[in-house]
Specification:
This protein is 34% helix and 22% strand. It is of the alpha/beta class.
């Protein structure tokens, strides 16, 4: 889904860093922040549904593009989990105020968990939609053949077809290497707020079993996993968006 709208605002972090494009709705707390997935942008159906939900209830909302994504500056191939987390943290700190509910889709679920760990006092709750922490290691590196690993080592980049667009995924060696600095599922993950994980059982990209694994390492006692038996990776059908809205309504109260 795309949107006709006014140009985004930009977060300027100095000449050495790409400017981050964002759109925000002013309103009351709790605010809602949407973190997009790998090679996705802030104009997708879930991001727009979250903003519309927040706007209808008078709550603040922030959606943004990581560097190299959407309307932000930078090259996608230069990005890593660490740099995209830094983008999210910069936008979170500069643009939002007060407690926030973070919604993360796919890779955005990883970013959301990193935000919760970095800013626990301000992250009032988390919603993961097919959340994919550690995907660079467990869902990319672990599945590469010896030949693909050799090509990645020799060329520094490996291109893989995408089911979600004409452009292939660019998997860089530094994406894999940097991802190892941000792995979350190898031990307890300290966060005490409420967490809701939504996952389709027909997800071909991020196995639904990952959500119960996330729940098992979180230290919070208020964690619920909702499985959608016929749901795919995107979870963007009307019924899926209704589930997302209902989940947000519960957390916002």
């Amino acid at each position: 889904m795309s949107e006709p709208s006014s140009p985004p605002e930009f977060l300027d972090r100095g000449a050495s860093k790409p400017r981050i494009a964002y759109r925000r709705t002013h309103g009351k707390s709790y605010g809602v922040v949407f973190c997009t997935g790998f090679m996705s942008d802030m104009t997708g159906s879930k991001a727009l549904a979250v903003e519309a939900f927040a706007r209808a209830r008078g709550h603040a909302c922030l959606r943004f593009d990581y560097s190299g994504h959407g309307e932000s500056e930078g090259r996608f191939e230069e990005g890593t989990i660490g740099s995209w987390f830094a983008d999210a943290l910069a936008a979170f700190d500069a643009v939002t105020e007060g407690p926030q509910i973070i919604v993360g889709s796919s890779m955005g679920g990883w970013i959301a968990l990193l935000l919760a760990r970095a800013r626990p006092a301000r992250v009032a709750g988390l919603v993961g939609i097919a959340p994919a922490p550690d995907f660079t290691e467990d869902l990319i590196w672990a599945r590469l053949s010896d030949a693909e690993r050799a090509e990645l080592a020799a060329k520094g980049v490996l291109y893989q077809p995408s089911d979600y667009g004409a452009e292939p995924y660019a998997i860089t060696a530094k994406l894999i290497e940097d991802g190892r600095n941000h792995l979350l599922l190898r031990g307890p993950l300290a966060y005490s707020g409420p967490v809701r994980l939504l996952h389709g059982m027909c997800d071909p990209d991020v196995p639904w079993e990952l959500s119960p694994r996330i729940a098992s390492v979180l230290t919070s006692d208020d964690v619920r996993v909702t499985l959608v038996k016929d749901g795919d990776h995107r979870l963007s059908r009307d019924s899926d968006l209704d589930l997302l809205r209902g989940t947000l309504a519960e957390l916002i109260g």
